[in-house]
Amino acid sequence: MPALEIPCPKCGKYLKVPDRNLLGRKARCGKCHHIFQIIEPATKTVAATGANSNSPHEEPPFDAVELAELFRPSSIVTTRAGLRKRGTRRWRNGLIAAAVTLLVAGGVGAYVSSQRSGRGDTADTDGKSNPHATATTAASSAKKSTAEKHPLSQSPTKGEPISLKMVPMGARVVIHLRPAELWEPGSAGEELRACLGPLGVWLAQQIETRCLLPPARIEAVVFALIPVSREAFDVSIVVRTRQPVRKSELIEKFDGELIDEPRPHYLGKTNAFLIHDAKTYAIAPRSMAESLLESVNTASVTSEGIQALLSRTDRDRHFTIVAELEDVRTGAGTLAPENAQNLLGAVVDFLGDDAETVAWSMHLGDPEADRDLFAELLVRNRTTHSPTNLQRDLKKNLAAMPAKVLKVVNQTNPRRLGEKQIVDRLPIMAKVVEQSAAVETDKRLVKVQWNLPERAAPNLALGTLLTWNQTTLPEFGTSPSSQPSSRSDLPATIAARLQKRIDVEFREKDPLYGCVEYISGEIGVEFKLDGPGMKRVGVTQNQPPKFSMQGATASTVLHRMLVPIRLVLIVDEQKKIATITSDEEAEDKKLKPFPLTPPPK
Questions:
Q1: Each residue of 70-112: pLDDT tens digit?
Q2: Alpha carbon of 428 to those of 431, 467, 562: distances in Å?
Q3: Would residue 569 count as lying in a domain?
Q4: Which of 440, 471, 502 is the last residue of a domain?
Q5: In terms of CB atoms within 10 Å, which of 67, 153, 450, 550 comes out highest?
């Protein structure tokens, strides 16, 4: 049996594994001394022609995925190029959009980007191959939920419950954030916000505008959405700062008239302001000033469901949202911008009609403290539906999630390689999330918890945002990746296919094999990478090309990619295969390199 060659994930040096029985064990790289698990590499044959010509490389079956490998540091691509800038949103719209995005980033309902749009249904009904056949098979034959295998974890935080003191009565959506920790330079929060793209930038601007201080100065903030009609909400805010704030600084920002009775507060044109102490102040709509003052010492009245779940929250977690689902359903039109309506609606649909109130919280991981990402979902059932039945429904929806993510991903067509790789991995990440869920029932409550590698938060956030962005594009559902191609659509020869013009943007973390794979999917040519031959000139398959071209032929792109590092393309028109090897290997074997087209000077 020939030895396997396993590349070191850190430096790319190949390790020879003489026996397949060693797969799964750990090894140390002889060059950089990095310790890694020996995992059989994917086939070196990249994207076949014909029906699968536009498909990404197949992922291993879901059961073979290792959490640490799936969410490894190199798998995250923090590019914002694929995210279109959106116009200014109303405050409550963007706030809910940010909250829903964080919800999705944690994994619950990650598939929902456009489930209710009805566009581009790609169900395979004719028996033809599916671009993601491996993932589809694994998702459709999902094992029994591993929730029973994973007991509920101990919370990484021990904070007091979130309070509605200094919040006017009637809150139906409560969002709690810890901005100073999330905006700390170099923190996991900073990385997560980068992965949220323009939404993360917008959220920082809105916090500073609405809370009157930059996020770095705010220890914790509560946003309470209070219905003023069946579909409209007003927002009340309670801010607790990291350090004491001078009263004169706040008064200047309030721009309101001092009212002494029944306790000192300030009335502006639209808002009422209350300074509770040197580190705590509240802002509410002017029309709710009286209710604001009444709630200073005693938490305001809200629904029974909100009160029940608030008692189980932890204010030390980075993010928490508590919501009365009926109010979210009726107010969805004003709670989210138009391009997020399906996203919000499908999250609610995921929870089901028999869920009354929900609390979702998340605490980011910390690699230095060896702390995983912790997420918790609390769902309170309606009195007409038992917790046991609600648990069954949630498990069923969780099990169906990866296949639904896959269905959406099949309708996308990211143009940049980095985006394509992240979006294509979202279904298998969703499967890991589903299999990692631990579920428990209590009186009128279902609790779901996740402990995921620290890398899960940015990977899921970026994958979800990029996929969501794809679903807002006009061509969503009609892209080549969602419609099987036929051989008749492509030129007959490899030489002719190499003349197809493509756009590429290969970045620092894009490996050579991934870049070749991308070209393969664009032009429908099967490439093979001759690893041993390439190593003769010191080139590995993980080496990043790092360049971009617009409207260039595939032949020109390959010239720019291969020739500078002494690689050549050997074309076999009879077998319809193009092999990449070194010039030395080609010369020794008397192989004739294909004449690639050099870029214009």
A1: 454 433 334 323 322 333 334 444 455 455 545 544 332 332 2
A2: 5, 14, 32
A3: yes
A4: 471
A5: 450
